[in-house]
Design a protein that fits this description.
CATH topology: Non-ribosomal Peptide Synthetase Peptidyl Carrier Protein, Chain A
CATH class: Mainly Alpha
Structural class: mainly alpha
Helix content: 40-55%
Low-confidence stretches: none
Largest sheet: none
Distance between the termini: 32 Å
Shape: globular
Number of helices: 4
Strand content: under 5%
């Protein structure tokens, strides 16, 4: 399962109670559509940190990073790339 599908599964199971019926597109805004509220955002952040072993910093908790599956997937991929060890010799 890829990152987008893992995130979709979490959102559908925890916020839509399994009732998405394929209607959750990658670009659906979590906030504008009312899928995730402020408490849900904390749950989503916790899931991302546990699942991908990354730490989200306060300045990263913005809609540009977290407000849809597409944005969240890009953000997680970027954080994972940053956490990879850099080679000693370039």
């Amino acid at each position: 399962m890829n990152i987008t599908e893992e995130l979709r599964t979490f959102v559908v199971e925890n916020f839509l109670f399994g009732q998405a019926n394929g209607s959750l597109s990658d670009d659906t805004s979590f906030l504008e559509s009312g899928i995730v509220d402020s408490t849900g955002l904390l749950e989503l952040i916790g899931f991302v940190e546990r699942t991908y072993a990354i730490r989200l910093h306060d300045d990263e908790l913005v809609p540009e990073n977290l407000d849809s599956l597409a944005r969240l997937t890009c953000f997680v991929n970027r954080k994972l790339a940053e956490s990879q060890p850099q080679p000693l010799y370039a």
